[in-house]
Amino acid sequence: MAFVWRLAKAGYASFDGEGARLYGGRWNHPGIRAVYASESLSLATLEYFVNLDTDLAPDRLVSLRAEIPRRIEQEIVETGNLPKHWRTCPAPEALQDIGTEWLRRGETAVLSVPSAVVPEERNYLLNPAHREFSRIRIGRPRPFHFDPRMRK
Asked: What's the confidence (pLDDT) of residue 109?
């Protein structure tokens, strides 16, 4: 089994991809569902933290761990195959094209991508429309709180 992690507000902790469908993300255009996850809880925390407004302290956060059976195939995006400025914010549209095309092809349930925050680590897009998505075991949400020192 491989594990992936999500950090979200308590009311938005589902693995349905609705937020990505509504707003898009670094790896998908709006209009198509995708679930974003990270290879560790610490990376999920950093990914969440870098997207916070500096004057807003998050409350009612939860962490979720999901188990992906090793038999579920994944596609891997290597850093060397990305545009030169792939880590910029906002993200280059080429990244959304890569993820959206992967989602539309529907060949695998998991896409492994480098983290823009820590490029040596991996984030994962999960395709909730893929036939093997239902084999991913999603754990129960657990309360999560940032260490207060992160707000200095």
From this structure: 98
